[in-house]
């Protein structure tokens, strides 16, 4: 029976994870290594009975991805940024600066903050500027590889074009090249195989608050709209997603609807966390103000 329990624990703790039972601390380890955990001498005993006195410690080796931690990310950095002209006449959209730092650098820094150092950048338009600024990623504590699009492939085609660079991963993170955020991407890995991040929809206008007598109580600038959610442009996928991707086309109208139709797509809602998509000149200004407010700079 103990052997069965060991097997069960190994399946549940595939990643490198040091864990104690009830009342004891949990601590994750990134990468491959040894897994250590406590098993009750009676494997059928409820979890609350598992203590150092009535449990045994087992250790085994694993090279599986760490539980709850995404090990590699793909950034779709090949966009033209037509709505950001004339800025994008001389640079690719991911090199647009917010607080004097290019969007792509903010993204690499954000990924490193959450333990993701291996990245694949899907590049196309004016890619030389991204090569020059990011390089191999070592100056940011990251490891960067590049998937080059000789012609625009769309978000789905760009990801499929990078498939060979992701062959060593069971799963990975993908994000659009115009997203600035502080959300925790590892929540997506815990939620399911194919997962999309959602953020609250904001009103494009300021809102006037009134009481029952139409007396003005105050003004709220672009508040979040309750129970309305939008795609945050951050995703977690397994390798299965490549079966749904087009050679040329957008993932939003191909793979995502197909996965949803088959019941394979889940969502994680993020609230009270900084998120911005840079699509206009005004977005740059507003993102800079918000980032200063949350001290990202």
Low-confidence stretches: 8-36, 40-50, 59-67
Largest beta-sheet characterization: 7 strands, mixed
- Total number of helical segments? 7
Shape summary = globular
Distance between the amino and carboxyl termini: 54 Å
Give the strand order of the largest sheet, numbering strands 1, 2, ... along the chain: 9-8-5-10-15-12-16
- Named at the architecture level, the CATH assignment of the largest domain is Alpha-Beta Complex
Question: CATH H level of the largest domain: which superfamily?
Answer: Spore Coat Polysaccharide Biosynthesis Protein SpsA, Chain A
Walk me through what this model shows.
The chain has helices spanning 2-12, 103-113, 127-134, 154-161, 186-191, 255-261, 281-293, and strands at 17-19, 26-28, 33-40, 55-62, 72-77, 97-98, 101-102, 118-123, 143-148, 171-176, 179-181, 194-202, 207-210, 216-220, 224-238, 265-269, 275-277. It is α/β, with parallel strands linked by helices. It has 2 domains: 2-62, no CATH class; 72-293, Alpha-Beta Complex (Spore Coat Polysaccharide Biosynthesis Protein SpsA, Chain A). It has a 7-stranded mixed β-sheet, sandwiched between helices. It has a 4-stranded mixed β-sheet with strand order 2-1-3-4, covered by helices on one side. A two-stranded antiparallel ribbon has the order 6-7. The chain is globular, with a radius of gyration of 22 Å. It starts with a helix and ends with a helix. Pfam families: NTP_transferase (PF00483). Residues 72-291 form the Nucleotidyl transferase domain. GO terms for molecular function: transferase activity.
């Amino acid at each position: 029976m103990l052997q069965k329990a060991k097997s069960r624990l190994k399946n549940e703790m595939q990643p490198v994870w040091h864990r104690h039972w009830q009342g004891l601390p949990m601590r994750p380890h990134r990468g491959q290594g040894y897994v250590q955990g406590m098993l009750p001498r009676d494997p059928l005993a409820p979890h609350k009975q598992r203590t150092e006195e009535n449990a045994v410690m087992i250790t085994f080796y694993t090279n599986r991805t760490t539980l709850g931690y995404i090990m590699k990310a793909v950034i779709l950095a090949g966009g033209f940024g037509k709505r950001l002209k004339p800025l994008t006449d001389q640079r690719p959209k991911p090199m647009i600066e917010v607080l004097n730092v290019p969007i792509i650098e903010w993204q690499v820094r954000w990924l490193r903050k959450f333990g993701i150092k291996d990245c694949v950048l899907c590049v196309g338009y004016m890619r030389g500027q991204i090569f020059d600024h990011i390089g191999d990623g070592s100056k940011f504590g990251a490891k960067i590889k590049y998937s080059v699009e000789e012609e625009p492939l769309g978000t789905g085609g760009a990801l499929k074009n990078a498939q060979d660079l992701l062959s060593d991963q069971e799963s990975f993170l993908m994000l659009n090249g115009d997203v600035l955020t502080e959300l925790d991407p590892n929540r997506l890995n815990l939620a399911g195989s194919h997962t999309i991040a959602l953020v609250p929809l904001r009103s494009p206008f300021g809102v006037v608050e009134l009481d029952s007598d139409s007396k003005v109580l105050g003004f709220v600038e672009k508040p979040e709209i309750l129970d309305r959610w939008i795609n945050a442009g951050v995703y977690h996928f397994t390798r299965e997603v490549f079966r749904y991707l087009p050679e040329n086309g957008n993932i939003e109208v191909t793979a995502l609807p197909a996965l949803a139709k088959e019941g394979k797509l889940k969502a994680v809602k993020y609230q009270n966390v900084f998120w911005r998509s840079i699509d206009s000149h005004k977005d740059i200004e507003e993102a800079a103000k918000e980032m200063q407010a949350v001290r990202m700079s």
